[in-house]
Amino acid sequence: MVKRHQERGKLLVRARIEELIDSETPFLEFSPLAAYGLYKNEVPSAGIITGIGVVNGREVMIIANDATVKGGTYYPLTVKKHLR
């Protein structure tokens, strides 16, 4: 899925976040191990990236679906992480 995504000229989710946040600023990702050991380990980070980054000098909450994980499908832990 990752290869096909890149062949279509699309950025991966973490690359999109890096493009969004101000350069030279960190991104604090929440729960990167969510869903670890569940769903046959086919849903890394519960299929969604959440965290805090700096955009135009302001700290913001960022929530981004990972389309390379089951096409962006929401699992119960995805919803839980999103609502957190």
UniProtKB/TrEMBL annotation:
Q: Which residues form a coiled coil?
A: none
GO biological process terms, semicolon-separated: L-leucine catabolic process
**Transmembrane regions:** none
Choose one Gene Ontology CC annotation of this protein and give it.
methylcrotonoyl-CoA carboxylase complex
CoA carboxyltransferase N-terminal domain boundaries: 1-84
Q: Which Pfam families match?
A: Carboxyl_trans
Molecular function (GO) terms for this protein are: methylcrotonoyl-CoA carboxylase activity
Please name the PROSITE patterns in this protein's record: COA_CT_NTER (PS50980)
Q: Which PANTHER family match?
A: ACETYL, PROPIONYL, PYRUVATE, AND GLUTACONYL CARBOXYLASE-RELATED (PTHR22855), METHYLCROTONOYL-COA CARBOXYLASE BETA CHAIN, MITOCHONDRIAL (PTHR22855:SF13)
Tell me the protein's name.
CoA carboxyltransferase N-terminal domain-containing protein
Query: What is the species of this protein?
Result: marine metagenome
